[in-house]
């Protein structure tokens, strides 16, 4: 599985967009980018995933660079409840193992 | 609510003992994964079962074992427990293959004293 690199922590003001970067320079053509978050000690929560096109759902947007070596998760209007550790994962299609890295601790401040 | 149920939520036991953690996947999901998260640590992949068969092993100790039953629920057995086994244990499930996300349960917090 390709490795991912994320900043250990980031701050964001409430109501502003939170942009969380992820580097996955060794990603292979058949690997998807997934984002999960973990609020305190709860079970990780699925956010979004994509292969090469940008994706958007009710929670967030995922922007993947054209060379697929990096991506950005965008929370358009961060709230205090978005304070969590955000994990970027790359996973081979049809291969269900998820490896979690260290993640980014996002602190949303009032 | 992810639809994945883990029991018990909390478990306190003594060193040397054996415990069983249970996971009921979302309805229809064939894959079950187990993860361990020690205090302030990341999630460590332990093992993956698909429709009753072991598919992948991660950093799972020999003292630990798992199985998935015909009704697709899974159990993680931890034996000869040590203080260092104290952790959150998460189960996740996903549907068969393909481009699917995994949904996590709320975990079992194991404390070994």
Structure, explained:
The complex is a heterodimer of chains A (110) and B (113). Helix content of chain A is 0%, strand content 47%. Chain A has 110 residues and is an all-beta fold. In chain A, the strands form two sheets. A five-stranded mixed beta sheet of chain A has the order 1-9-8-3-4, with no helix packed on it. In chain A, strands 2-7-6-5 form a four-stranded antiparallel beta sheet, with no helix packed on it. The radius of gyration of chain A is 13 Å and the shape is globular. Chain B has 113 residues and is an all-beta fold. Helix content of chain B is 0%, strand content 50%. Chain B is built from no helices and eleven strands. In chain B, strands 2, 4, 5, 6, 9, 10 and 11 form a seven-stranded mixed beta sheet that branches. In chain B, strand 5 and strand 6 form a beta hairpin. The model of chain B has no long low-confidence stretch (mean pLDDT 92). At the A-B interface, strand 3 and strand 4 of A face strand 4, strand 5, strand 9 and strand 10 of B.
Features:
heterodimer; A: 110 residues; mainly beta; 5-stranded mixed sheet; 4-stranded antiparallel sheet; 9 strands; 0% helix; 47% strand; globular; B: 113 residues; 7-stranded mixed sheet; 11 strands; 50% strand
């Amino acid at each position: 599985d390709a490795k991912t690199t994320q900043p250990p922590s980031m701050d964001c003001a409430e109501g502003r967009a939170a942009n969380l970067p992820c580097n996955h320079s060794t990603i292979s053509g058949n690997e998807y980018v997934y984002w999960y978050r973990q609020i305190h000690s709860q079970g990780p929560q699925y956010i979004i995933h994509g292969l090469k096109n940008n994706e958007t759902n009710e929670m967030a947007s995922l922007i993947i660079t054209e060379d697929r070596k990096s991506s950005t998760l965008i929370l358009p209007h961060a709230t205090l409840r978005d304070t969590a550790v955000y994990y970027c994962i790359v996973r081979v299609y049809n291969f269900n193992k998820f490896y979690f890295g260290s993640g980014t601790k996002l602190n949303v401040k009032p | 609510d992810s639809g994945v149920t883990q029991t018990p939520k909390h478990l306190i036991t003594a060193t040397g003992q054996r415990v069983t953690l249970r996971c009921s996947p979302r309805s229809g999901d064939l894959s079950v994964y187990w993860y361990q998260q020690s205090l302030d640590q990341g999630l460590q992949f332990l093992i993956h079962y698909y429709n009753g068969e072991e598919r992948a092993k991660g950093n799972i100790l020999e003292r630990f074992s798992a199985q998935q039953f015909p009704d697709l629920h899974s159990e993680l057995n931890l034996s000869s427990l040590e203080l260092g086994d104290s952790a959150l244990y998460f189960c996740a499930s996903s549907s068969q293959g393909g481009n699917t996300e995994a949904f996590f349960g709320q975990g079992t917090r194991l404390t070994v004293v």
